[in-house]
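So, could you explain the following?
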Amino acid sequence: MRILGIEPGTAIVGFGVIDVDGQKKTIIDAGVIRTPANQELEMRLETIYTEINEIIKANKPEVMVIEQLFFGRNVTTAISVSHARGVMILAGQQAGLKIEEFTPPQIKQALTGTGSADKKQVQEMVKLLLNLKEVPQPDDCADALAAALTYNA
Protein backbone atom coordinates (compact mmCIF):
# COMPACT_ATOMS: atom_id res chain seq x y z
CA MET A 1 0.00 0.00 0.00
CA ARG A 2 1.28 3.47 -0.86
CA ILE A 3 0.56 6.24 1.63
CA LEU A 4 1.01 10.01 1.29
CA GLY A 5 1.48 11.78 4.61
CA ILE A 6 1.03 15.54 4.87
CA GLU A 7 2.08 18.06 7.51
CA PRO A 8 -0.11 21.04 6.58
CA GLY A 9 1.00 24.65 6.54
CA THR A 10 0.95 27.72 4.33
CA ALA A 11 4.63 28.68 4.31
CA ILE A 12 5.89 25.08 4.43
CA VAL A 13 3.94 21.90 3.70
CA GLY A 14 5.71 18.67 4.55
CA PHE A 15 5.01 15.55 2.51
CA GLY A 16 6.19 11.98 2.65
CA VAL A 17 5.26 8.97 0.55
CA ILE A 18 5.86 5.46 1.86
CA ASP A 19 5.17 1.93 0.70
CA VAL A 20 3.99 -0.56 3.28
CA ASP A 21 4.27 -4.27 2.55
CA GLY A 22 3.51 -6.22 5.71
CA GLN A 23 6.05 -5.08 8.27
CA LYS A 24 8.35 -3.55 5.64
CA LYS A 25 8.06 0.21 5.26
CA THR A 26 9.96 2.00 2.51
CA ILE A 27 10.28 5.71 1.81
CA ILE A 28 9.43 6.58 -1.79
CA ASP A 29 9.46 10.38 -1.82
CA ALA A 30 9.62 13.15 0.76
CA GLY A 31 10.18 16.86 0.96
CA VAL A 32 8.47 20.18 1.41
CA ILE A 33 6.42 22.64 -0.59
CA ARG A 34 7.40 26.25 0.18
CA THR A 35 5.45 29.40 -0.53
CA PRO A 36 6.72 32.97 -0.08
CA ALA A 37 5.63 34.65 3.16
CA ASN A 38 4.77 37.90 1.39
CA GLN A 39 2.54 36.21 -1.20
CA GLU A 40 -1.26 36.57 -1.08
CA LEU A 41 -3.00 33.60 0.53
CA GLU A 42 -4.91 32.82 -2.67
CA MET A 43 -1.67 32.41 -4.60
CA ARG A 44 -0.14 30.29 -1.84
CA LEU A 45 -3.19 28.01 -1.87
CA GLU A 46 -2.95 27.64 -5.64
CA THR A 47 0.73 26.67 -5.37
CA ILE A 48 -0.01 24.14 -2.62
CA TYR A 49 -2.91 22.64 -4.59
CA THR A 50 -0.86 22.38 -7.78
CA GLU A 51 2.15 20.84 -6.02
CA ILE A 52 0.06 18.32 -4.07
CA ASN A 53 -1.57 17.27 -7.34
CA GLU A 54 1.88 16.78 -8.89
CA ILE A 55 3.03 14.69 -5.91
CA ILE A 56 -0.10 12.54 -6.19
CA LYS A 57 0.36 12.08 -9.95
CA ALA A 58 4.05 11.22 -9.61
CA ASN A 59 3.72 8.79 -6.69
CA LYS A 60 0.21 7.32 -7.11
CA PRO A 61 -0.68 6.83 -3.43
CA GLU A 62 -3.84 5.01 -2.37
CA VAL A 63 -4.23 6.84 0.92
CA MET A 64 -3.67 10.43 2.07
CA VAL A 65 -3.01 10.97 5.77
CA ILE A 66 -3.15 14.58 6.85
CA GLU A 67 -2.42 15.91 10.30
CA GLN A 68 -5.33 17.65 11.98
CA LEU A 69 -4.80 21.16 13.24
CA PHE A 70 -3.80 21.71 16.80
CA PHE A 71 -5.16 25.14 17.69
CA GLY A 72 -2.65 27.13 19.64
CA ARG A 73 -2.73 30.81 20.40
CA ASN A 74 -2.50 32.18 16.86
CA VAL A 75 -6.02 31.91 15.44
CA THR A 76 -5.10 33.83 12.27
CA THR A 77 -2.43 31.26 11.39
CA ALA A 78 -4.84 28.42 12.19
CA ILE A 79 -7.42 29.83 9.80
CA SER A 80 -4.98 30.15 6.90
CA VAL A 81 -3.64 26.63 7.55
CA SER A 82 -7.25 25.40 7.59
CA HIS A 83 -7.66 26.85 4.09
CA ALA A 84 -4.47 25.05 3.01
CA ARG A 85 -5.72 21.77 4.49
CA GLY A 86 -8.91 22.24 2.49
CA VAL A 87 -7.12 22.45 -0.85
CA MET A 88 -4.93 19.46 0.07
CA ILE A 89 -7.97 17.36 1.02
CA LEU A 90 -9.72 18.48 -2.19
CA ALA A 91 -6.72 17.31 -4.25
CA GLY A 92 -6.79 13.95 -2.51
CA GLN A 93 -10.55 13.60 -2.93
CA GLN A 94 -10.36 14.47 -6.63
CA ALA A 95 -7.64 11.83 -7.07
CA GLY A 96 -9.85 9.19 -5.45
CA LEU A 97 -7.62 8.70 -2.41
CA LYS A 98 -8.84 7.39 0.90
CA ILE A 99 -8.35 10.32 3.29
CA GLU A 100 -7.51 9.87 6.97
CA GLU A 101 -6.84 12.53 9.58
CA PHE A 102 -4.94 12.17 12.86
CA THR A 103 -4.24 14.64 15.64
CA PRO A 104 -0.64 15.29 16.72
CA PRO A 105 -1.17 13.27 19.95
CA GLN A 106 -2.55 10.33 17.93
CA ILE A 107 0.55 10.38 15.69
CA LYS A 108 2.86 10.55 18.71
CA GLN A 109 0.97 7.69 20.39
CA ALA A 110 1.12 5.50 17.28
CA LEU A 111 4.85 5.95 16.76
CA THR A 112 6.22 6.19 20.29
CA GLY A 113 3.58 4.69 22.55
CA THR A 114 2.81 8.00 24.27
CA GLY A 115 0.73 10.93 23.06
CA SER A 116 3.02 13.34 24.90
CA ALA A 117 6.25 12.38 23.13
CA ASP A 118 8.49 15.23 22.04
CA LYS A 119 9.39 16.02 18.44
CA LYS A 120 12.82 14.38 18.70
CA GLN A 121 11.32 11.07 19.88
CA VAL A 122 8.90 11.04 16.94
CA GLN A 123 11.68 11.88 14.48
CA GLU A 124 13.87 9.08 15.82
CA MET A 125 11.01 6.61 15.37
CA VAL A 126 10.52 7.79 11.78
CA LYS A 127 14.23 7.16 11.18
CA LEU A 128 14.04 3.72 12.81
CA LEU A 129 10.81 2.55 11.17
CA LEU A 130 11.98 3.60 7.70
CA ASN A 131 15.51 2.28 8.27
CA LEU A 132 17.10 5.65 7.47
CA LYS A 133 20.62 6.80 8.36
CA GLU A 134 19.46 10.30 9.31
CA VAL A 135 16.27 11.96 10.49
CA PRO A 136 14.55 13.46 7.43
CA GLN A 137 14.92 17.23 7.18
CA PRO A 138 13.35 19.69 7.56
CA ASP A 139 11.09 18.83 10.51
CA ASP A 140 7.96 19.26 8.38
CA CYS A 141 9.12 16.42 6.14
CA ALA A 142 9.74 14.11 9.13
CA ASP A 143 6.31 15.05 10.54
CA ALA A 144 4.63 14.15 7.24
CA LEU A 145 6.37 10.77 7.22
CA ALA A 146 5.22 10.25 10.82
CA ALA A 147 1.63 10.91 9.69
CA ALA A 148 2.00 8.36 6.88
CA LEU A 149 3.43 5.78 9.29
CA THR A 150 0.50 6.32 11.65
CA TYR A 151 -1.96 4.97 9.11
CA ASN A 152 -0.46 1.52 9.30
CA ALA A 153 0.64 1.53 12.94
Q: What stands out?
A: The helical segments are 41-59, 75-94, 104-112, 119-129, 139-151. The mean pLDDT is 93. Residues 65 and 76 are 24 Å apart (CA to CA).
